[in-house]
Structure formats: C-alpha cells, structure tokens
Amino acid sequence: MYDSLATSLPAVGDVGLARTQGAAEFQRDTLKAAAAAGDKTAVRKSAEKFESQFVSQMLTHMFKGVKTDGMFGGGHAEGMWRDFYIEEVGDVIAKRGGIGIADTIERQLLQLQEVSR
CB-side exposure of 22: number of CA atoms within 13 Å? Predict the structure, then answer.
C-alpha cells in the first residue's frame, strides 16, 4: 500500500521546481498588474520579488553540487530544507540591494507606463 503511494508522489525536486515556476508566473502577472495600475510601490515590491526568485534559482544551481553528508553535514534533513533556506537567502539578497535586476525592471516598467499614457 505505501509503496504505491510513494511512487505516485512527485520527487521533492519536482515539487520545488513546480513551486518556483508557479511563483515566477505569479510574479510576472503581479508586475504587469502593478505597472498597469501605476502603483510605484507595488512595481518596486514586485520587481524585488522577481529578483529574489531569480537569485534563488541561481543559488539552487550552485548548491546542487554541495553534498549533505559527512561529519558536519545535515544529511537527508538538510536536503529537504535546503530549498527553503535558498529562497530566504534570495529574499535577503534582493531586499539589501540585490544584483541590480529589480532596479532595471522597475525603471523599464515605469518607462513603459509613461509611454502608454
């Protein structure tokens, strides 16, 4: 009974990827809505969240090669919680200035908004 349940569930990595893809689509839609409404604060917040998702994706690929075993490794539990840690690190990086993506997105959206008026 449990074997059939385990084989029908998606792998942890697949769930993380689906969550990230869904979050990216949500952020894209939020950015468009904020730009259309002319809300500069919402545009900035959405741009930062987009940058956070981008940085988290970069970090996810960087951490793939890091093993979780060994004397000081976290083992299976570390592997399970790593996605949450990476997401939080991405949020902190974006909130503290990030790598410049949020600034560029915000500037471009505000320019598009001015042209459309």
Answer: 6
Token pair of 10, please? 């998606």
What's the token pair of residue 47? 């741009």
Q: What is the mean pLDDT of the chain?
A: 77
pTM of the full predicted structure? 0.64
C-alpha to C-alpha distances, 99 to 29, 52, 70, 96, nearest whole angstrom: 22, 10, 33, 9
Half-sphere exposure for 100 (CA within 13 Å, toward CB):
0
d(CA 29, CA 36): 11
Q: Are 59 and 86 in contact, with CB atoms under 8 Å apart? A: yes
Tell me the C-alpha distance between 69 and 67, whole Å. Answer: 6
**Residue pLDDT, tens place only, 32-68:** 776 677 678 888 888 899 999 999 999 999 988 877 7
